[in-house]
Amino acid sequence: MPLEIATIPCLSDNYAFLAHDAANGQTALVDAPESGPILAELEARGWSLSHVLLTHHHWDHVDGLAGILEKHPAKVIGAAADAHRLPPLDQQVSDGDTFEIGGEPVQVLDVSGHTVGHVAYYMPQSSVVFTADSLMALGCGRLFEGTAPQMWASLSKLAALPDETIVCSGHEYTQSNAKFAVTVDPNNTALLQRMADIDRARAEGRPTVPSTLALEKATNPFLRATDPAIQAHLGMENADPTEVFAEIRARKDRF
């Protein structure tokens, strides 16, 4: 059976996620923005935390860890490349590594760009990938440490996963991302429909995360640097996709 995924709003616009195996009771937490909402969700569901998977070192993904570990002494897993600035890790992992949670393999993907050493966790049996601030709903993370070629390579790696993959990203930025996306992809009918769906969800207080990879590939401009319509709109017909991506990212930074 696929793992049960719980989405937990944290801080003002962050998300943490729980992945629970009903068969053996193991539960993994992906990122720890703050302890209170995560501990409350674990208690409400009667789950005991067995693993914590950290994606990158930024405070809004790790600051709640100490308070969580006080009540749930779980195994903490994170990137070896980021270990010097993450909380203490019980297991260091790198791109291509695989470990298990609840008998299900978890594949580690280096998705550097937002930071150097950022990782994503892909669970193929449950068709879910935890991307934090790499691939986001209708967006991607700002390039605080990495380069445009790094981020384009990371996004291309994620885009190669099966279309049905559920994308669990780290922030509720989707509505603002949509307002930008339409400036570079104005005639995309799938994007226009998604914008309407997003506005309705937010008006009703519902999250827009997670999404699906198929939806991101159809509407997220940061995955669409090879699209002729976007290239033409930017005046970059037949340009290298990395250069197109860099232009889209630069425009978003100024938006």
Q: How would you describe this protein?
A:
This protein is an alpha/beta fold and 255 residues long. The chain has one domain: Ribonuclease Z/Hydroxyacylglutathione hydrolase-like (Metallo-beta-lactamase, Chain A, 4-Layer Sandwich), CATH 3.60.15. It is 34% helix and 24% strand. It has 9 helices and 14 strands. The radius of gyration is 18 Å and the shape is globular. The model has no long low-confidence stretch (mean pLDDT 97).
Short account of what is shown:
This protein is of the alpha/beta class.
The value of Rg in angstroms is 18 Å
> Please, what is the average pLDDT?
97
Task: Count the DSSP helices.
Answer: 9
Task: Give the H and E element order.
Answer: EEEHEHHEEEEEEEEHEHHEHHH
Number of strands: 14
Residue windows where pLDDT falls under 50 for at least 5 positions: none
User: What's the CATH C level?
Assistant: Alpha Beta
The appropriate CATH architecture is 4-Layer Sandwich
Assigned CATH superfamily: Ribonuclease Z/Hydroxyacylglutathione hydrolase-like
> What is the fold named in CATH at topology level?
Metallo-beta-lactamase, Chain A
- Determine the oligomeric state from the structure: single chain
First CA to last CA: what distance?
Answer: 43 Å
Helix content: 25-40%
General shape:
globular
- Order of strands in the sheet with most strands: 1-2-3-4-5-6
Strand coverage percent? 15-25%
- Main pleated sheet: 6 strands, mixed
Number of domains: 1
Structural class: alpha/beta
